[in-house]
Q: What sequence folds into this?
């Protein structure tokens, strides 16, 4: 029995129905120079109730393929974005 992979990132788009786009930032060391650089990956995430808003920090979990690009589901909203 394998653990489902979890990631934490920031919601960058919520314009779709039941879907959001989450940007996950991670660090990698440069092969030659050794300096750490930040890289960003964007994931399509299933959001059944449409709770997440742009700027929210969320936890996503790996799931079965839900569409051509959606392989992740919203687990929880860690911190909501500041209201302007």
A:
């Amino acid at each position: 029995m394998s653990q489902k992979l979890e990631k934490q990132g920031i919601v960058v788009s919520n314009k779709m129905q039941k879907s959001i786009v989450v940007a996950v930032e991670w660090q990698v060391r440069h092969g030659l120079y050794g300096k750490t650089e930040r890289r960003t990956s964007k994931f399509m995430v299933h959001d059944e109730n449409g709770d997440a808003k742009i700027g929210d920090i969320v936890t996503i979990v790996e799931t079965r393929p839900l569409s051509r690009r959606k392989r992740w589901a919203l687990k929880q909203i860690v911190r909501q974005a500041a209201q302007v």
In short: The chain has a mean pLDDT of 95. The chain has no helices and five strands. The CA atoms of residues 58 and 77 lie 4 Å apart. The beta strands are 6-13, 19-29, 36-46, 57-62, 70-79.
